Amino acid sequence: AAHMSHLQQLQWLDLSGNYIGDIGAVSLATKFHFIRKLKHCDLHDNRITLKGATALAAHMSHLQQLEWLDLSGNRIGDIGGMSVCNKFCFIPNLKHLDFHNVTITSTGATAMAAHMSHLQQLEWLDLSGNDIGDDGTKALNENLVHLQQLKYMMLTANDTSIDVKKSLLSLCNMENLSEVKISIEMSSYHVYHLDVYNNKGYRLIIETGDAEIVKLVNQLFSQIHKVELSCQQKVLYSVQTGEGENPHKMTFDLPSASDITESLKALSVVLPVGHRLQAIDVEELRLGRLHIRDEGVRLLAEMFCYFPSLKHLDLS
């Protein structure tokens, strides 16, 4: 930082993962006036806390050409986050904002939402890994609709009510939004991938571990392109619309699941959505010696309506 005055043409600065801490962040911030042409600033995972975030915010008015800001993985908290958000008015060209896992709560998210109107060029927003709760999610719902350039949004929806999740999904009908990832902390490793069309006819990706989100998607979206269930990055079930002679493409590999009962639970959530594209076309299902137990049998029985082609069932 002491020699930053020599880099007045600097446009790209990546200091990620260097653990510069608050001392380094303060030193860097005080030299922002030398690098006014900076467009890309990546400071993720640097052990920056409130003090460093406050210093960065205090000098952010010098970075009016900034397009990319990544503070993810730094424990800046609500006050640090609010300090940065209060300076959004000085960085109106920002396109990429990563606040993943910065320990903000509903207080920080609400403050951020209040200043979002300054970021009319924002295309990419990651607030995942933060427990923003109902109030923070509601505030974002009310303000993100004004960001007409927003294409990608990632949020963590822990402990939010059904109404808030439904409201959150309503954002998916924003005209330019093309990808939404709504994550939730889960004890299992099941992930639902839903590829739908919003009211504007744009393809939208929703990735979540929350069964309630899947059910809401089934209620709120009339056009589905792809449905996928994976466990520890292995696809258990997938179906999607296609082109030409093979109008649908399907994968079904449930017997490979490590925890068959949990996988059956997850499958029971996603099958009603996938069935809208195609019934499962397997003729043989071997679940013998997989410790399926009574609960698993009950879950499977309730899904028989989705297996019209089944001829061989092994539950030995």
In terms of topology, how is this protein built?
Elements: E1 12-14, H1 21-29, E2 40-42, H2 50-58, E3 68-70, H3 77-85, E4 96-98, H4 106-115, E5 124-126, H5 133-144, E6 152-156, H6 162-170, E7 179-183, E8 190-197, E9 203-208, H7 211-220, E10 223-231, E11 234-241, E12 248-252, H8 260-274, E13 284-286, H9 293-302, E14 312-314
Parallel strand pairs: 1-2, 2-3, 3-4, 4-5, 5-6, 6-7, 7-9, 13-14
Antiparallel strand pairs: 8-9, 8-10, 10-11, 11-12
Helix pairs in contact: 1-2, 2-3, 3-4, 4-5, 5-6, 6-7, 7-8, 8-9
Can you describe this structure?
The chain has 316 residues and is of the alpha/beta class. The protein is built from 9 helices and 14 strands. The strands form 2 sheets. The chain has a 12-stranded mixed sheet, covered by helices on one side. A hairpin with a 2-residue loop joins strand 10 and strand 11. Helix 2 packs parallel to helix 3, helix 5 packs parallel to helix 6 and helix 6 packs across helix 7. The longest helix has 15 residues.
Classify the oligomer. single chain
- The total of beta strands comes to 14
Calculate the mean pLDDT score and round it.
87
Distance between the termini: 68 Å
- Quick one: overall form? elongated
The SSE string, one letter per element, is: EHEHEHEHEHEHEEEHEEEHEHE
* Proportion of beta-strand residues: 15-25%
Note the main sheet.
12 strands, mixed
Helix content: 25-40%
Rg, alpha carbons: 23 Å
The largest sheet has its strands arranged as 1-2-3-4-5-6-7-9-8-10-11-12
Based on secondary structure, the structural category is alpha/beta
Instruction: Point out poorly predicted stretches.
Output: none
Annotation field: number of helices? 9
